[in-house]
Amino acid sequence: MAKLTVRDLNVRGQKVFVRVDYNVPLEEKDGQMVITDATRIVETLPTLKLLIEQGGKLVLAAHLGRPKGKREPSMSLRPVAAKLADLLGRPVAFVDDCIGEKVEKTADALKPGDVLLLENVRYYNEEEANDPVFAEKLAKVAQVYVNDAFGAAHRAHASTEGVARVVAKRGGRCAAGLLMERELKFLGDELEKPARPFVVILGGAKVSDKILVIDRLLDKADTLLIGGAMAYTFRLAQGHKTGKSLVEADKADVARSALAKAGERKVKFLLPVDDVVAEPVKTDKLDKKGKPVIDYQNVRVSTDLNCPADAAGLDIGPKTASAYGAEIAAAKTILWNGPMGLFEDKRFAEGTNAVARAVAEVTQKSGAKSIIGGGDSVKALNKAKLGDKVTFMSTGGGASLEFLEGKALPGVAALSEK
Ligand code: 3PG
Ligand code: MG
Questions:
Q1: 351-373: per-residue pLDDT in tens?
Q2: Strands 115-118 vs 144-147: parallel, antiparallel or unpaired
Q3: Catalytic member of 3, 15, 40, 251
Q4: pLDDT computed for residue 235 by the predictor
Q5: pLDDT tens, 53-85?
Q6: Rounded mean pLDDT, 21-37
Q7: What is the pTM (predicted TM-score) of this model?
Q8: Cβ within 8 Å of residue 6, ≥6 positions away
């Protein structure tokens, strides 16, 4: 990577503005917000420890949720400051704002090695608007800029992009953190010249989310394994009936051209040969978004490529899982993004779990490199307690997809060259 990293810095006595992605899941328990998964905080510790060792004065900035310019109390970063202090084993100061006099005074009082976390930058609309005046205000406490927020690097926001520009214009340095560096290494460099066979597993609900990734990976992969509801748009494209499965009928053409490209490039393109199907029934219950909760009845395996009219495909079936398992077992490099089915429901989790086990096993036994592209696949691996059995799990959801599509990430582009 040609970008400057924290390894190239010596920040002794300087105020270092560190953009981190602490957009962690929270749940309310007894009137308090509790962090349910601290992975994104844990993953920044190496960067923070290095900067602390160097004697920097750390000012951390992050967003949480999408408060859209409002001081939404449930989206405060205060609980994150407490969690970070626990994990770092040292105090973490917190200010209930991210700009202004209070922030500047607290930052000025920091001693080398001290850590301060600022309040949610998205309490201001100017953050997402990448407002230059707001970026200047944030940059008041930034002698050096470090971006370790890979998960937010696809956003051209004030704290991910604007501040870096301000610091660079002043002649200050803007560096990638160690997590950012690792993400770019595994999702980027490692997949440029992969050891072969290179097997890509793609799942998730929508073809439209993955079109560009599929297209790009068809240039690189030996084998593509498709699962998730996305597979049913391919079935539709092949002229099969899809029943009540989630399909994007307007994306059938895209699916057809992907199949054609796979044929031309001699990429093995595998689609499910059997499914777990069930009949969706609306219930009286409403979910958090106010939509009726769907109950699934009459769960069964179907080996007919035409889905029964009253049923939806919700997971890959056992024959597919074993065929995919065999491809995975022979792989030297694996990239996995997206679950094979509705894995949040136990009855539709076996396909995803089988893939998770196969990926973990080939990594452990044959030394294959397995790279997990963030989001739901990471959740599924952790749920199966296999997270530590793969080579790398990305902390980015949208960011990892955009990066895999070959797009330049604004948060990375803004960093200084070595
Ligand atoms: C994420 O969780 O995907 C990142 O933190 C980015 O958040 P956003 O999608 O709200 O910009
Ligand atoms: Mg997102």
A1: 999 999 999 999 999 999 999 99
A2: unpaired
A3: 40
A4: 96
A5: 999 999 999 999 999 999 999 999 999 999 999
A6: 93
A7: 0.93
A8: 47, 50, 51, 146, 175, 176, 177, 178
The amino acid that residue 105 corresponds to is: K
Q: How far apart are CA 156 and CA 171, in angstroms?
A: 21
**Both tokens assigned to 321:** 């899982």
Residue-level pLDDT at 2: 87
Tokens of 5: 């990293």
Determine the Cα–Cα distance for residues 141 and 172; give it in Å rounded to an integer: 12
Q: What is the CA radius of gyration of the chain?
A: 23
Distance CA 276, CA 274 (A): 7
* Token reading at 59: 């000012």
pLDDT tier, 287 (very low <50, low <70, confident <90, very high otherwise): confident
Do residues 174 and 166 make contact, with C-beta atoms less than 8 angstroms apart?
Answer: no
Asked if residue 370 lies in contact with residue 362, where contact means CB atoms within 8 angstroms, the answer is yes
Ligand 1 pocket test, pick from 23, 155, 376, 409 with the greatest ligand atom count within 8 Å of Cβ, gives 23
Active-site residue, selected from the candidate residues 78, 185, 206, 261: 206
